[in-house]
Protein backbone atom coordinates (compact mmCIF):
# COMPACT_ATOMS: atom_id res chain seq x y z
CA UNK A 1 0.00 0.00 0.00
CA UNK A 2 1.44 3.37 -1.02
CA UNK A 3 -0.32 5.48 1.64
CA UNK A 4 -3.13 5.53 4.18
CA UNK A 5 -4.72 8.82 5.21
CA UNK A 6 -7.43 9.36 7.81
CA UNK A 7 -10.21 11.93 7.59
CA UNK A 8 -12.07 12.84 10.77
CA UNK A 9 -15.83 13.33 10.82
CA UNK A 10 -18.43 13.96 13.53
CA UNK A 11 -20.08 10.64 12.78
CA UNK A 12 -16.89 8.64 12.40
CA UNK A 13 -13.56 8.46 10.68
CA UNK A 14 -12.90 7.73 7.03
CA UNK A 15 -9.89 5.63 5.96
CA UNK A 16 -8.42 6.50 2.56
CA UNK A 17 -6.07 3.94 1.02
CA UNK A 18 -3.95 4.67 -2.03
CA UNK A 19 -2.32 1.68 -3.75
CA UNK A 20 -3.10 -1.55 -5.61
CA UNK A 21 -6.49 -2.71 -4.34
CA UNK A 22 -7.04 -6.45 -3.98
CA UNK A 23 -10.85 -6.63 -4.15
CA UNK A 24 -10.96 -10.18 -2.75
CA UNK A 25 -8.95 -9.11 0.31
CA UNK A 26 -10.75 -5.78 0.79
CA UNK A 27 -14.24 -7.27 0.33
CA UNK A 28 -14.23 -10.83 1.66
CA UNK A 29 -17.63 -12.48 1.16
CA UNK A 30 -19.08 -11.76 4.56
CA UNK A 31 -22.51 -11.41 6.02
CA UNK A 32 -22.59 -7.63 5.37
CA UNK A 33 -25.30 -7.16 2.75
CA UNK A 34 -23.65 -4.97 0.11
CA UNK A 35 -25.03 -3.29 -3.00
CA UNK A 36 -22.58 -2.05 -5.60
CA UNK A 37 -23.67 1.19 -7.29
CA UNK A 38 -21.98 2.08 -10.56
CA UNK A 39 -22.68 3.41 -14.08
CA UNK A 40 -22.62 1.78 -17.54
CA UNK A 41 -19.25 3.06 -18.75
CA UNK A 42 -17.38 1.98 -15.62
CA UNK A 43 -19.09 -1.40 -15.78
CA UNK A 44 -18.13 -1.82 -19.45
CA UNK A 45 -14.49 -0.90 -18.87
CA UNK A 46 -13.82 -2.41 -15.46
CA UNK A 47 -16.72 -4.75 -14.63
CA UNK A 48 -14.38 -7.75 -14.61
CA UNK A 49 -12.31 -6.47 -11.70
CA UNK A 50 -15.15 -5.35 -9.43
CA UNK A 51 -16.23 -7.30 -6.34
CA UNK A 52 -19.16 -9.58 -7.13
CA UNK A 53 -21.92 -7.88 -5.12
CA UNK A 54 -25.39 -7.29 -6.60
CA UNK A 55 -25.15 -4.23 -8.90
CA UNK A 56 -27.33 -1.18 -9.42
CA UNK A 57 -26.70 1.02 -12.45
CA UNK A 58 -27.24 4.78 -12.35
CA UNK A 59 -27.04 7.23 -15.27
CA UNK A 60 -23.62 8.22 -16.58
CA UNK A 61 -22.22 11.62 -15.59
CA UNK A 62 -23.93 14.63 -13.98
CA UNK A 63 -27.38 13.39 -15.05
CA UNK A 64 -27.18 10.84 -12.21
CA UNK A 65 -27.18 13.63 -9.59
CA UNK A 66 -30.89 14.41 -9.93
CA UNK A 67 -34.03 13.92 -7.86
CA UNK A 68 -35.00 11.14 -10.32
CA UNK A 69 -31.58 9.49 -9.92
CA UNK A 70 -31.92 9.65 -6.14
CA UNK A 71 -35.44 8.25 -6.19
CA UNK A 72 -34.35 5.37 -8.45
CA UNK A 73 -31.56 4.51 -6.02
CA UNK A 74 -33.82 4.69 -2.95
CA UNK A 75 -36.29 2.45 -4.85
CA UNK A 76 -33.52 -0.08 -5.50
CA UNK A 77 -32.62 -0.01 -1.78
CA UNK A 78 -36.31 -0.57 -1.01
CA UNK A 79 -36.58 -3.50 -3.44
CA UNK A 80 -33.42 -5.02 -1.93
CA UNK A 81 -34.95 -4.54 1.52
CA UNK A 82 -31.70 -2.93 2.78
CA UNK A 83 -31.55 -2.77 6.56
CA UNK A 84 -29.42 -0.50 8.71
CA UNK A 85 -26.50 -2.97 8.75
CA UNK A 86 -26.22 -2.97 4.97
CA UNK A 87 -23.45 -1.31 3.01
CA UNK A 88 -23.27 0.61 -0.28
CA UNK A 89 -20.15 0.43 -2.41
CA UNK A 90 -20.05 3.25 -4.99
CA UNK A 91 -17.74 2.61 -7.94
CA UNK A 92 -17.23 5.45 -10.41
CA UNK A 93 -16.47 9.13 -10.78
CA UNK A 94 -17.63 11.98 -8.57
CA UNK A 95 -21.17 11.88 -9.97
CA UNK A 96 -21.67 8.29 -8.75
CA UNK A 97 -20.06 8.89 -5.35
CA UNK A 98 -21.97 12.15 -4.73
CA UNK A 99 -25.31 10.48 -5.54
CA UNK A 100 -24.71 7.11 -3.88
CA UNK A 101 -23.19 8.76 -0.80
CA UNK A 102 -26.23 11.02 -0.43
CA UNK A 103 -28.67 8.11 -0.94
CA UNK A 104 -26.80 6.00 1.65
CA UNK A 105 -26.46 8.87 4.14
CA UNK A 106 -30.24 9.36 4.13
CA UNK A 107 -31.46 5.72 3.84
CA UNK A 108 -32.91 4.71 7.21
CA UNK A 109 -31.11 7.79 8.62
CA UNK A 110 -27.78 6.64 7.28
CA UNK A 111 -26.09 3.36 6.41
CA UNK A 112 -22.41 2.59 5.81
CA UNK A 113 -20.99 3.49 2.41
CA UNK A 114 -17.59 3.06 0.80
CA UNK A 115 -16.08 4.42 -2.39
CA UNK A 116 -13.96 2.90 -5.13
CA UNK A 117 -13.27 6.05 -7.19
CA UNK A 118 -12.43 5.50 -10.88
CA UNK A 119 -11.62 9.06 -12.08
CA UNK A 120 -8.70 11.25 -11.05
CA UNK A 121 -11.14 13.93 -9.94
CA UNK A 122 -13.02 11.53 -7.68
CA UNK A 123 -9.79 10.15 -6.17
CA UNK A 124 -8.26 13.53 -5.36
CA UNK A 125 -11.43 15.34 -4.41
CA UNK A 126 -15.03 14.11 -4.75
CA UNK A 127 -14.59 10.84 -2.81
CA UNK A 128 -12.67 12.45 0.05
CA UNK A 129 -14.03 14.75 2.75
CA UNK A 130 -17.59 13.55 3.25
CA UNK A 131 -19.64 15.97 1.12
CA UNK A 132 -22.48 14.26 -0.77
CA UNK A 133 -25.05 15.95 -3.00
CA UNK A 134 -27.44 16.06 -5.91
CA UNK A 135 -28.22 19.04 -8.14
CA UNK A 136 -31.61 20.75 -7.91
CA UNK A 137 -33.38 23.10 -10.33
CA UNK A 138 -30.23 23.62 -12.35
CA UNK A 139 -28.11 24.50 -9.32
CA UNK A 140 -25.08 22.36 -8.47
CA UNK A 141 -25.02 20.38 -5.21
CA UNK A 142 -27.95 22.26 -3.72
CA UNK A 143 -29.24 19.28 -1.70
CA UNK A 144 -26.79 17.10 0.18
CA UNK A 145 -25.21 16.02 3.44
CA UNK A 146 -21.93 15.91 5.32
CA UNK A 147 -21.29 12.23 5.95
CA UNK A 148 -17.96 10.40 5.75
CA UNK A 149 -17.56 7.22 3.69
CA UNK A 150 -16.22 4.39 5.89
CA UNK A 151 -13.39 3.75 3.40
CA UNK A 152 -12.12 5.22 0.13
CA UNK A 153 -9.97 2.85 -1.91
CA UNK A 154 -7.92 4.60 -4.60
CA UNK A 155 -6.33 2.32 -7.19
CA UNK A 156 -4.69 4.37 -9.95
CA UNK A 157 -4.97 1.38 -12.34
CA UNK A 158 -8.50 2.64 -13.12
CA UNK A 159 -7.09 5.89 -14.51
CA UNK A 160 -5.46 4.48 -17.65
CA UNK A 161 -8.83 4.19 -19.43
CA UNK A 162 -9.79 7.83 -18.71
CA UNK A 163 -9.93 10.15 -21.72
CA UNK A 164 -7.34 12.93 -21.78
CA UNK A 165 -10.20 15.38 -21.22
CA UNK A 166 -11.32 13.67 -18.00
CA UNK A 167 -7.73 13.23 -16.81
CA UNK A 168 -7.15 16.97 -17.36
CA UNK A 169 -10.34 17.71 -15.43
CA UNK A 170 -8.86 15.87 -12.43
CA UNK A 171 -5.68 17.92 -12.87
CA UNK A 172 -7.81 21.06 -12.39
CA UNK A 173 -8.47 20.02 -8.77
CA UNK A 174 -4.89 18.75 -8.38
CA UNK A 175 -3.58 22.20 -9.39
CA UNK A 176 -6.00 23.83 -6.92
CA UNK A 177 -4.60 21.61 -4.13
CA UNK A 178 -1.04 22.33 -5.28
CA UNK A 179 -1.70 26.07 -5.08
CA UNK A 180 -3.21 25.69 -1.60
CA UNK A 181 -0.30 23.51 -0.40
CA UNK A 182 2.58 25.23 -2.22
CA UNK A 183 6.10 23.89 -1.56
CA UNK A 184 7.12 20.41 -2.74
CA UNK A 185 3.68 19.37 -3.95
CA UNK A 186 3.41 22.38 -6.28
CA UNK A 187 6.94 21.62 -7.57
CA UNK A 188 5.97 17.97 -8.17
CA UNK A 189 2.96 19.01 -10.25
CA UNK A 190 4.92 21.65 -12.18
CA UNK A 191 7.63 19.04 -12.82
CA UNK A 192 5.16 16.85 -14.76
CA UNK A 193 5.13 19.53 -17.50
CA UNK A 194 1.80 18.24 -18.79
CA UNK A 195 3.00 14.63 -19.28
CA UNK A 196 0.31 12.19 -18.18
CA UNK A 197 1.73 9.21 -16.22
CA UNK A 198 0.29 5.74 -16.93
CA UNK A 199 -0.28 3.10 -14.27
CA UNK A 200 0.82 0.27 -16.58
CA UNK A 201 4.49 0.94 -15.78
CA UNK A 202 6.15 0.98 -12.35
CA UNK A 203 7.37 4.61 -12.53
CA UNK A 204 4.03 5.75 -14.01
CA UNK A 205 2.09 4.08 -11.20
CA UNK A 206 4.39 5.66 -8.61
CA UNK A 207 3.96 9.10 -10.18
CA UNK A 208 0.15 8.75 -10.22
CA UNK A 209 0.10 7.54 -6.62
CA UNK A 210 2.25 10.52 -5.57
CA UNK A 211 -0.12 12.94 -7.34
CA UNK A 212 -3.19 11.35 -5.72
CA UNK A 213 -1.65 10.99 -2.24
CA UNK A 214 -0.37 14.59 -2.21
CA UNK A 215 -3.75 16.01 -3.16
CA UNK A 216 -5.61 13.87 -0.64
CA UNK A 217 -3.12 14.83 2.10
CA UNK A 218 -3.76 18.52 1.33
CA UNK A 219 -7.55 18.10 1.39
CA UNK A 220 -7.59 15.79 4.45
CA UNK A 221 -5.47 18.21 6.52
CA UNK A 222 -8.02 20.97 5.85
CA UNK A 223 -11.10 18.78 6.43
CA UNK A 224 -9.58 17.48 9.68
CA UNK A 225 -9.52 21.06 10.96
CA UNK A 226 -13.05 21.87 9.78
CA UNK A 227 -15.36 19.14 8.50
CA UNK A 228 -18.49 21.31 8.20
CA UNK A 229 -17.02 24.25 6.30
CA UNK A 230 -17.33 26.73 9.14
CA UNK A 231 -13.79 28.04 8.72
CA UNK A 232 -10.70 26.67 6.93
CA UNK A 233 -12.62 24.25 4.68
CA UNK A 234 -13.81 27.30 2.77
CA UNK A 235 -10.29 27.36 1.30
CA UNK A 236 -11.23 24.31 -0.77
CA UNK A 237 -13.79 26.49 -2.57
CA UNK A 238 -10.89 28.25 -4.29
CA UNK A 239 -11.95 28.67 -7.94
CA UNK A 240 -15.41 27.21 -7.29
CA UNK A 241 -17.59 30.32 -7.05
CA UNK A 242 -17.01 31.21 -10.69
CA UNK A 243 -16.29 27.54 -11.52
CA UNK A 244 -19.70 26.17 -10.47
CA UNK A 245 -21.48 28.83 -12.54
CA UNK A 246 -19.42 27.89 -15.61
CA UNK A 247 -19.95 24.16 -15.05
CA UNK A 248 -23.75 24.50 -14.88
CA UNK A 249 -24.16 26.94 -17.77
CA UNK A 250 -21.52 25.69 -20.18
CA UNK A 251 -21.71 21.96 -19.31
CA UNK A 252 -17.94 21.57 -19.20
CA UNK A 253 -16.11 19.08 -16.94
CA UNK A 254 -15.87 20.07 -13.28
CA UNK A 255 -12.08 20.47 -13.25
CA UNK A 256 -12.07 22.63 -16.38
CA UNK A 257 -14.61 24.94 -14.76
CA UNK A 258 -12.54 25.08 -11.56
CA UNK A 259 -9.39 25.85 -13.60
CA UNK A 260 -11.02 28.90 -15.22
CA UNK A 261 -12.41 29.90 -11.81
CA UNK A 262 -8.95 29.59 -10.26
CA UNK A 263 -7.25 31.85 -12.80
CA UNK A 264 -10.15 34.33 -12.50
CA UNK A 265 -9.74 34.36 -8.70
CA UNK A 266 -6.06 35.27 -9.13
CA UNK A 267 -7.03 38.08 -11.54
CA UNK A 268 -9.52 39.40 -9.00
CA UNK A 269 -6.84 39.23 -6.28
CA UNK A 270 -4.50 41.19 -8.56
CA UNK A 271 -7.14 43.82 -9.20
CA UNK A 272 -7.73 44.26 -5.46
CA UNK A 273 -3.96 44.43 -4.75
CA UNK A 274 -1.69 42.21 -2.64
CA UNK A 275 -1.20 39.37 -5.14
CA UNK A 276 2.34 38.39 -6.19
CA UNK A 277 2.73 39.43 -9.87
CA UNK A 278 4.44 36.10 -10.71
CA UNK A 279 1.45 34.02 -9.55
CA UNK A 280 -0.88 34.51 -12.53
CA UNK A 281 1.65 33.62 -15.26
CA UNK A 282 2.87 30.66 -13.19
CA UNK A 283 -0.62 29.18 -12.75
CA UNK A 284 -1.71 30.08 -16.30
CA UNK A 285 1.19 28.10 -17.76
CA UNK A 286 0.48 25.18 -15.42
CA UNK A 287 -3.16 25.13 -16.58
CA UNK A 288 -2.18 25.52 -20.22
CA UNK A 289 0.12 22.45 -20.33
CA UNK A 290 -2.88 20.32 -19.33
CA UNK A 291 -5.19 21.98 -21.88
CA UNK A 292 -7.21 23.60 -19.09
CA UNK A 293 -8.91 26.97 -19.61
CA UNK A 294 -7.35 29.90 -17.77
CA UNK A 295 -10.18 32.38 -18.31
CA UNK A 296 -13.96 32.44 -18.57
CA UNK A 297 -13.63 33.14 -22.30
CA UNK A 298 -11.48 30.02 -22.81
CA UNK A 299 -13.99 27.99 -20.80
CA UNK A 300 -16.73 29.14 -23.17
CA UNK A 301 -14.49 28.10 -26.07
CA UNK A 302 -14.29 24.47 -24.91
CA UNK A 303 -17.96 24.06 -24.04
CA UNK A 304 -19.96 21.54 -26.01
CA UNK A 305 -22.78 24.05 -26.28
CA UNK A 306 -20.44 26.59 -27.89
CA UNK A 307 -19.10 24.00 -30.35
CA UNK A 308 -22.64 23.20 -31.41
CA UNK A 309 -23.11 26.81 -32.51
CA UNK A 310 -24.27 27.95 -29.08
CA UNK A 311 -23.10 31.00 -27.19
CA UNK A 312 -19.98 32.94 -28.13
CA UNK A 313 -18.00 34.83 -25.51
CA UNK A 314 -19.06 38.22 -26.79
CA UNK A 315 -22.78 37.62 -26.42
CA UNK A 316 -24.04 40.01 -23.73
CA UNK A 317 -26.77 37.63 -22.46
CA UNK A 318 -24.11 35.00 -21.72
CA UNK A 319 -22.02 37.41 -19.65
CA UNK A 320 -25.18 38.35 -17.79
CA UNK A 321 -26.18 34.72 -17.20
CA UNK A 322 -22.75 33.74 -15.89
CA UNK A 323 -22.58 36.85 -13.70
CA UNK A 324 -26.02 36.10 -12.19
CA UNK A 325 -25.15 32.42 -11.67
CA UNK A 326 -22.00 33.48 -9.79
CA UNK A 327 -24.12 35.78 -7.65
CA UNK A 328 -26.57 32.93 -6.87
CA UNK A 329 -23.78 30.76 -5.39
CA UNK A 330 -24.43 28.90 -2.12
CA UNK A 331 -21.76 30.97 -0.38
CA UNK A 332 -23.82 34.15 -0.85
CA UNK A 333 -25.27 35.91 2.18
CA UNK A 334 -27.13 39.18 1.81
CA UNK A 335 -25.39 41.42 -0.71
CA UNK A 336 -21.99 39.78 -0.32
CA UNK A 337 -20.31 36.49 -1.11
CA UNK A 338 -17.43 34.66 0.57
CA UNK A 339 -14.56 34.35 -1.84
CA UNK A 340 -11.08 32.81 -1.65
CA UNK A 341 -8.42 35.17 -2.98
CA UNK A 342 -4.97 33.70 -3.68
CA UNK A 343 -1.99 35.97 -3.01
CA UNK A 344 0.80 33.42 -3.52
CA UNK A 345 1.16 29.61 -3.21
CA UNK A 346 -0.08 28.60 0.27
CA UNK A 347 -1.11 32.21 0.99
CA UNK A 348 -4.88 32.60 0.70
CA UNK A 349 -7.34 35.10 2.08
CA UNK A 350 -11.07 34.45 2.59
CA UNK A 351 -13.01 37.67 2.26
CA UNK A 352 -16.56 38.84 1.73
CA UNK A 353 -16.88 40.55 -1.64
CA UNK A 354 -19.86 42.76 -2.54
CA UNK A 355 -22.00 40.94 -5.12
CA UNK A 356 -22.06 43.99 -7.37
CA UNK A 357 -18.24 44.00 -7.53
CA UNK A 358 -18.07 40.29 -8.37
CA UNK A 359 -20.78 40.52 -11.05
CA UNK A 360 -19.05 43.51 -12.66
CA UNK A 361 -15.69 41.68 -12.55
CA UNK A 362 -17.13 38.60 -14.29
CA UNK A 363 -18.84 40.72 -16.98
CA UNK A 364 -15.71 42.81 -17.61
CA UNK A 365 -13.23 39.92 -17.74
CA UNK A 366 -15.21 37.65 -20.04
N1 LIG B 1 -18.27 15.72 -2.99
C1 LIG B 1 -17.26 16.52 -3.25
O1 LIG B 1 -16.55 16.98 -2.35
C2 LIG B 1 -16.94 16.86 -4.69
C3 LIG B 1 -15.74 17.48 -5.01
C4 LIG B 1 -15.45 17.73 -6.34
C5 LIG B 1 -16.36 17.37 -7.34
N2 LIG B 1 -17.53 16.77 -6.98
C6 LIG B 1 -18.50 16.37 -8.01
O2 LIG B 1 -17.90 15.34 -8.80
C7 LIG B 1 -18.53 15.35 -10.07
C8 LIG B 1 -17.47 15.24 -11.14
O3 LIG B 1 -16.77 14.03 -10.97
P1 LIG B 1 -16.01 13.35 -12.21
O4 LIG B 1 -15.16 14.35 -12.87
O5 LIG B 1 -15.42 12.11 -11.69
O6 LIG B 1 -17.20 13.12 -13.23
P2 LIG B 1 -18.12 11.85 -13.63
O7 LIG B 1 -18.43 11.01 -12.46
O8 LIG B 1 -19.23 12.43 -14.40
O9 LIG B 1 -17.16 11.02 -14.61
C9 LIG B 1 -16.64 11.65 -15.76
C10 LIG B 1 -16.66 10.70 -16.95
O10 LIG B 1 -15.66 9.70 -16.77
C11 LIG B 1 -16.21 8.41 -17.08
N3 LIG B 1 -15.41 7.44 -16.30
C12 LIG B 1 -15.46 7.18 -14.98
N4 LIG B 1 -14.46 6.34 -14.65
C13 LIG B 1 -13.79 6.05 -15.78
C14 LIG B 1 -12.64 5.25 -16.09
N5 LIG B 1 -11.94 4.64 -15.13
N6 LIG B 1 -12.23 5.19 -17.38
C15 LIG B 1 -12.91 5.86 -18.37
N7 LIG B 1 -13.97 6.66 -18.13
C16 LIG B 1 -14.40 6.74 -16.85
C17 LIG B 1 -17.66 8.52 -16.73
O11 LIG B 1 -18.44 7.57 -17.44
C18 LIG B 1 -17.98 9.95 -17.15
O12 LIG B 1 -18.30 10.01 -18.51
C19 LIG B 1 -19.34 16.62 -10.18
O13 LIG B 1 -20.70 16.33 -10.01
C20 LIG B 1 -18.84 17.44 -8.99
O14 LIG B 1 -19.81 18.32 -8.49
C21 LIG B 1 -17.83 16.50 -5.68
Give a structural overview:
With 366 residues, this protein is an alpha/beta fold. 46% of the residues lie in helices and 18% in strands. It contains 15 helices and twelve strands. The chain has helices spanning 23-26, 40-46, 67-79, 94-106, 120-126, 164-181, 183-191, 202-225, 240-250, 254-272, 279-289, 296-302, 304-307, 316-327, 355-365; strands spanning 3-7, 14-18, 34-38, 55-57, 87-92, 112-117, 131-136, 139-146, 151-154, 332-333, 336-344, 347-354. The strands form four sheets. The chain has a four-stranded parallel beta sheet with strand order 4-3-5-6. A three-stranded mixed beta sheet has the order 1-2-9, with helices on one face. Strand 3, helix 2 (40-46) and strand 4 form a beta-alpha-beta unit. Helix 5 runs parallel beside helix 6. The longest helix is centred in the middle third of the chain and has 24 residues, at 202-225. The relative contact order is 0.10. The model has no long low-confidence stretch (mean pLDDT 93). It binds nicotinamide-adenine-dinucleotide. Nicotinamide-adenine-dinucleotide (NAD) binds next to helix 2, helix 4, helix 5, strand 8 and helix 6.
**Roughly how many Å is the radius of gyration?**
20 Å
Summarize the amount of helix as a percent range: 40-55%
Shape: globular
Widest sheet, order of strands: 4-3-5-6
Count of separate DSSP helical elements: 15
- Distance N to C terminus: 45 Å
**Strand-residue fraction?**
15-25%
The total count of strands amounts to: 12
Low-confidence stretches: none
